[in-house]
Each structure stands twice: as structure tokens, then as C-alpha cells.
User: What shape does this take?
Amino acid sequence: MAPTIGIDFERLTLRDALDLAVLIEEEARDRYREFAEQLTAHDTPEVADFFTRMARIEERHRSELFERRRTLFGDAPSGVERRQLFEVEAPGYDEARAFMGVRQALEIVLAAEVKAYTFFNEALPRVKDPELRGLFQELRDEEVHHQALVKTELARCPEKPDDSEAYADDPVAQ
Amino acid sequence: MNAMLAPNDYKSALKPIWCPGCGDFGVVQALYRALSAVGRPPHEIAFISGIGCSSRIPGYTTAYGFNSVHGRALPIAQGVKLANPDLLVVVAGGDGDGFSIGGGHVPHAIRRNVDLTYLVMDNQVYGLTKGQLSPTSPRGLKTVTSPQGSLEQPINPLLTVLAYGAGFVAQATPADMPGMTGLVEEALRYPGFAFVNIQSPCVTFGEEEQQLRAHKARMKPLASLGHDTSNQLAALDLARAYGTELYTGVFYRNPVPPPTYDALIRQRQTDLQQGEPPPRARVLDAYLRA
Assistant: This one.
């Protein structure tokens, strides 16, 4: 499933590619914020805190890329829009569960980082401009680094039984 | 692309209270994007819903909204559209709201062809009230009201609306966000009654094979089958597979949309205003003779 619509990688400019990278981080940040809100509302505070932390990390990535874009291109209007992106790095809404554990949350984040890596890796052959290729390679390799960080966290995180099913009431006569 | 209105311009400050993992999160996101693509500002849009998890959608948008009574979203939406035909009127609700208590309103909204977009979030269960059988629950489904499994044949929403003559009929799943967004946008743009059945799984009471992960493996885009969306009979044939196949895309789009009821009403009003007003005496005579 193509996670973007109307983006021609062969014609992408460096400015648009940076904007695209900013929007990818923004989308991931917003999704983690939403997960944090959902899990706060459903009595899963530990994982809500974890997703809040993830949202901060994605915001840091976003602002770094945004600064780079501003330094190079100032306030020139963007050629890409948020609605052209569909969960490039953001996990799908169906991934969250009430009463999930931090380990499950880490697995969601790892899958999201792998997804982002795949996106940049699959886009690379279509990118012809050498400067742009450099940026895409850099962004792809960043995702490898992020995956390593998440894997380290996962190794530290104890296995816990999945009690997310506890959310569903067993069928009983009403 | 409209640079003026971003998807987030349609998002209200109210936080959805759906269960984490609910398909409706994807639906509302697709809606924000589709509305942004259509470009109508929030004050020109009205969301009308009934009761149920998905009927909470009006509160999550910055448009006008009416979270009304169970099963009555369609009659209210028709009234809203006729009172203010310039509004973009979107009706949102679940399969229970639309095809059980509200089922009687569906044929009349369709035959009148009021220019509405009707989005049904079909999760095949009553989720808000903790998992009872709904009109689209598959036969054999075990719920609190069918502990031995449902004995009932489910309603087929696609066949139902096609048989009543809906001009635009589509099916989507949040497992395909770009596809769903495009279908909702197409429905919003269709001039007449447009119906989108969205297979939006209930993460809490739904079956495992109804979840989005299973949808991703099962879904078959109609475009990949070479389906001709102007062929109503082919659409009816494909719609029969509801419950066994997960077809996504446009089943039917009337290539020559008939005039909408709201347009006909407007025309009638114009005609009456332009014509010679009947003399008061003649009206009184006609009344007394009747």
C-alpha cells in the first residue's frame, strides 16, 4: 500500500523532500500524542507516558529537520501537504490497545521505525538527484539507528503477559 | 490542492473516547482529509448522527453537528438539507443505527435522492452497549444476546441500498487509509444520495477475523477486478458477496445522476414565485368545494 499520494519521487526537489521528512515526523508525533490521550482515557498511564515520550522524540526530529529546511530555503512555500501522507512512520490506529504493556508499545514503535526505513529504502531507486539521494540515504539510515535504540529498550523491558484482553467483558447474561 | 483548509481545520478540540484500536479513529481521520480536499469550510458543513460509538463523530469535527436520537439521523439530515440546501450534509452512524432501528428511513432517503453523504461504520455488533447482535452480525456470532451463536441472517447493507436505487454506493475499510479517504471524498462530491459502507471493526467486541490486520490480508479493491462502476447489475452481483468477500471501492456510481430532491424543491419554489399568484377568492372556493 503506497503511504503517499501524488508525490513524484523522480521530480521531488530538495526543499519538498525536506518538507516531506518534516511532515512524516509530524504525523508520527501526532499519532503518539493521540495514543497517549487514548491510553490516559483508558487507565493505562504507564504506556500513556511512554507514548508522550515518543511524541517528544518525534517532535525533536521534526524541529531539527524544520530548522534545516528553514536555513536552506527560508519561508518558501511547501510543495507537499500533510494529506498526501498516510502513516509513513506513524503506527496505525489499530495498533493501540487499552491495558497494553510498555513492551507491546515498544514493539509498535519498532514496527513503525521499520516501516519508515522501508519507505525511504523503496523510494531511493526512484530518486535521481544526487543531493536528494544523499538526504534519503541519511533519513533511511537514521531509521536504522532508531531501530537499534528501540531494540536496546526492548531488551531491558521485561516480558509481561498481554492483559489487553482484560478490557473486553466476557459474554454474560444481561 | 486547497492551501486554505488543512485536515486539522476540521478537527475539534474534543478528544475521541473510542477504545484504543477502534476503526473509527481511521474513519474520522479520512473524513478530515476528504473534507480538506473538497475544501468546504466547516461552517458550510453539517454532521448528523444517531446513537452509537460512531455517532459521536459530529462532536469530533469543527462543522455544525447534531448527535440526535437513535435511528433518526436520516430524517433529521433530510430536514437540514431541505431547510438549507447550501449545506454539505454528512450523516454518520453505525450498522445498528442505520439498518435496525433506523432501517425504515433508508429507502425513503434514497428514493427522494436528497443530496446527502451517508457513512455507515459497520462493525457488525452493538459495541456501545457492550456487544449485542446487530443487524449485520454474521450468522453464528456469539454475543451476550446470542451465547450459542446467532441464528439470524444478516442484512446486506450494500445490496439493500443498491436495490433501493442509491446513486453512489461504495465500501471501504480503515485498513486502506488512502483508499477510504478517496472514497469518502468521492461520496462527498457526488450530487445525490451517496452511501459508503465502512467496515470499521470493533476492537473490543468484534471477532478477530474482522480486525484491520485481517482486512489488510482479505480486502480486494474492485478496481483491480476491472469492475465497471456504471454497471448497476454487476454492482448488485458483487454486493452479494458481502460477508464473504471484502470488496473495497465504488460498487456503483450513476453516470447520469438524476436531479436531487433539494434541487427539485428549489425549482418548485422558483416556479411558484415566478407564476401568477392565484386570486384569493379562487383559492377559498377551491378549499370550500374540497
User: Anything to note?
Assistant: Chain A has one domain: 14-75+86-159.
